[in-house]
Amino acid sequence: MFSHIFVGVSDFNAAVAFYAPLMAQLGRSLKFVEQERPWAGWSPAWAERPLFLIGRPFEGAPAPGNGQMVAFIAPDRAMVDACHALALANGGSCEGPPGLRPHYHPHYYGAYFRDPDGNKLCVCCHDPA
């Protein structure tokens, strides 16, 4: 469905330090890093796309955007827990601990956090335990 998702960051090196372990945990491979631009992108190990990209906002306005959220799918609830813990250990802040969110659907298990710039992220699993 998506070609790529781009998330604006203000401190590129801090953002790479935050996102690199999270993407690795989710099984995403680093496709490129261009310090001079600066931007970086990850893709699934099994495909070229979709790409998840971070970098300085093209328009030059401050990051983050208001009301946006990127949600990553996890294969199981343990991965949701691991990603949330990893995000907090690498400078993220909690926006909602791992747990069931039955108001979405009976098996929705998600965790919410913000990156060091304040971009809101989610890791979720839609499958039963």
Tell me briefly what this model is.
With about 130 residues, this protein is α/β, with parallel strands linked by helices.
What is the fold's blueprint, element by element?
Blueprint (H helix, E strand, L loop, with lengths): L3 E5 L3 H14 L2 E7 L4 E6 L6 E5 L13 E5 L3 H13 L3 E8 L8 E6 L5 E6 L4
Parallel strand pairs: 1-4, 5-8
Antiparallel strand pairs: 2-3, 3-4, 6-7, 7-8
Helix pairs in contact: 1-2
Lateral arrangement of strands in the main beta sheet? 1-4-3-2
CATH architecture: Roll
Given the C-alpha coordinates, what overall shape results? Answer: globular
**Unreliable spans:** none
Helix and strand element order: EHEEEEHEEE
Q: Total helix count?
A: 2
Radius of gyration: 14 Å
CATH class: Alpha Beta
CATH superfamily: 2,3-Dihydroxybiphenyl 1,2-Dioxygenase, domain 1
Defining key terms:
single chain; 129 residues; alpha/beta; 2,3-Dihydroxybiphenyl 1,2-Dioxygenase, domain 1; four-stranded mixed beta sheet; 2 helices; 8 strands; 37% strand
What does this structure look like?
This protein is an alpha/beta fold. It has one domain: 2,3-Dihydroxybiphenyl 1,2-Dioxygenase, domain 1 (Roll). It contains two helices and eight strands, in the order βαββββαβββ. It has helices spanning 12-25, 77-89; strands at 4-8, 28-34, 39-44, 51-55, 69-73, 93-100, 109-114, 120-125. α1 (12-25) packs antiparallel against α2. It is globular, with a radius of gyration of 14 Å. The protein starts with a strand and ends with a strand.
